[in-house]
């Protein structure tokens, strides 16, 4: 199959963007979390690039608009990958006993187990402590 050069760059760009999206979703997360302000700046930059793409498209410049959109997508994939970094408030990873307990607790057969009597008792106590008197005329 022979692809015309005018269509070839579009296919190459689409393949590169697909690879960037898959890489941001499947690549190993960064070791540290990125500051939310930095992520916000990246998203704003992507929005500016999208706006530039819209402006270029309105001026009938399809190549420039395609590359502006592609740059915006690339910046978004970078922000998505960086947002997956591990935060100090995240639960610990690893099997050294520092893991969070499983919730809901499960039986050996994998079915969830809950102590419904204890739940209902605690729920009733909560409702009673937060009950407001009804106003009847």
Return the structural class. Answer: mainly alpha
Return the average pLDDT rounded to an integer.
Answer: 82
Helix content: 55-70%
Shape: elongated
Major sheet description: none
Give the topology string: H per helix, E per strand: HHHH
Query: Any low-confidence stretches, pLDDT <50, length ≥5?
Result: none
Structural Rg? 26 Å
Kindly state the number of beta strands.
0
- The share of residues in extended strands comes to under 5%
Task: Enumerate how many helices there are, as a single number.
Answer: 4
Give the CA-CA distance, first to last residue. 83 Å
Detailed description of the structure:
There is one protein chain. The chain is an all-alpha fold and 137 residues long. It contains four helices and no strands. The protein has helices at residues 5-26, 36-58, 62-83, 116-129. The radius of gyration is 26 Å and the shape is elongated. The termini are far apart.
